[in-house]
Amino acid sequence: MAYRTTPARMDRDEQLRQRILDCALSRVAGGGFASLTMVALADDVGIATGSLYRHFHSKGELAAEVFASASGREVEALREVLRGDGDPATRLARGVRQFAARAWSSRSLAFALIAEPVEAEVDEQRLLYREAYGELFCELLEEGAAQGAFQVAQPRVIAACLVGAIAESLVGPLSPPAWAAREAGRPSVELAVVSDALTTFCLRAVGAKEPHP
Amino acid sequence: MAYRTTPARMDRDEQLRQRILDCALSRVAGGGFASLTMVALADDVGIATGSLYRHFHSKGELAAEVFASASGREVEALREVLRGDGDPATRLARGVRQFAARAWSSRSLAFALIAEPVEAEVDEQRLLYREAYGELFCELLEEGAAQGAFQVAQPRVIAACLVGAIAESLVGPLSPPAWAAREAGRPSVELAVVSDALTTFCLRAVGAKEPHP
DNA sequence: CAAACATCTGAACGTTGGTTCACTTCTTGT
DNA sequence: ACAAGAAGTGAACCAACGTTCAGATGTTTG
């Protein structure tokens, strides 16, 4: 016997795997999933393309994992707020505002996660995570409905509506063309405007008693 | 001189072009844009692949035209209703219901138009048509706001929210897996349920005075 | 019918980008 | 140090499709 997987080795493996994911995320955050190619990624990491396959079965798997980890963070942040303190309406308002703010602060990544056309394997993740957002809203809606803070007959459907409304209202302002316009000094909507309108929209839509801050 | 483009020829050209578009639409309606390949399409039409290029510069152009014509029909139908008779809230309700019903009645095509991952050139069209829907809603919102039927401060943003809510709430139930579930006899949401919930959602969201039928 | 020219054909080509694999370079345990 | 075997390399390979083009087939006019 002359070789065995030692702890040190497994550590380095784990670290490299993470480094690959980090580089991949950078790439996506910079130029969307379109710019995530195996050759370019390997180059970024400083390894050969073949080595990527020691850590991921295929590009699809890798891309899906990048998507999942980035989206997972968002779901977590949203969960934190929606399950936090305060009455349901306040929590909903906070959740929406936070989501918009986070998306705005890393618009390019947000656009890639929300709207960029991607290969099927990644798109599956998108559907999955949209469901996860929906699940969180659904929970809150049921709680709110039970205590009379909201009026919703079909929490699942309404939750999907919320997810759609939030995503769509942000896609426009986050899209590359819109951002280019902003940087060129042309007028365009600002975060506060979208965020306020969106929040009011969501609160009203679920039958919350009155506008919340 | 021994040949000139005669009216009969141009007619046949026009007809063939239309036949190509029809076949392409069938294909998309059946298996989404993923199943729209030049070879398969040429086969459907009964011509050679090369002949397709006598009518369309590229696949992207062809696909975009298919998308546009299908979406154009929907925009038209929506415009009809939103600009029709009745107070703004009633028209909004009708528009939403009609949109849902139409999508439901050709679910596969609707899914392809709303949510299927597609090549960039087609996705551009999607963005464009989403804007068109938004524009229609925006118009109605402004009219409604002016006469006090709605309470919307940012019609453009709210219009996007409506488009997103409608699309997203339908994507789930229209998606291939959901439909497979329905056909397998497993329980799933029905059109009436989604349509009602969605309509209520939209009316409340724009601050309409009270639920409309 | 025959010249002149458009249109059609479909196998071959090109491009893009993921994936492989024979070979080299490390690590580890004795 | 050295054997045993894992990990790394990167050019070649491959698959999938859109696109092309030289030759065959139609169509029109005199």
From TrEMBL, chains A, B:
<dbReference type="Pfam" id="PF17932">
    <property type="entry name" value="TetR_C_24"/>
</dbReference>
<dbReference type="InterPro" id="IPR041490">
    <property type="entry name" value="KstR2_TetR_C"/>
</dbReference>
<dbReference type="InterPro" id="IPR050109">
    <property type="entry name" value="HTH-type_TetR-like_transc_reg"/>
</dbReference>
<dbReference type="InterPro" id="IPR023772">
    <property type="entry name" value="DNA-bd_HTH_TetR-type_CS"/>
</dbReference>
<dbReference type="GO" id="GO:0003700">
    <property type="term" value="F:DNA-binding transcription factor activity"/>
</dbReference>
<dbReference type="Pfam" id="PF00440">
    <property type="entry name" value="TetR_N"/>
</dbReference>
<dbReference type="InterPro" id="IPR009057">
    <property type="entry name" value="Homeodomain-like_sf"/>
</dbReference>
<feature type="DNA-binding region" description="H-T-H motif">
    <location>
        <begin position="37"/>
        <end position="56"/>
    </location>
</feature>
<dbReference type="InterPro" id="IPR001647">
    <property type="entry name" value="HTH_TetR"/>
</dbReference>
<dbReference type="GO" id="GO:0000976">
    <property type="term" value="F:transcription cis-regulatory region binding"/>
</dbReference>
<protein>
    <submittedName>
        <fullName>Transcriptional regulator, TetR family</fullName>
    </submittedName>
</protein>
<feature type="domain" description="HTH tetR-type">
    <location>
        <begin position="14"/>
        <end position="74"/>
    </location>
</feature>
<dbReference type="InterPro" id="IPR036271">
    <property type="entry name" value="Tet_transcr_reg_TetR-rel_C_sf"/>
</dbReference>
<keyword id="KW-0238">DNA-binding</keyword>
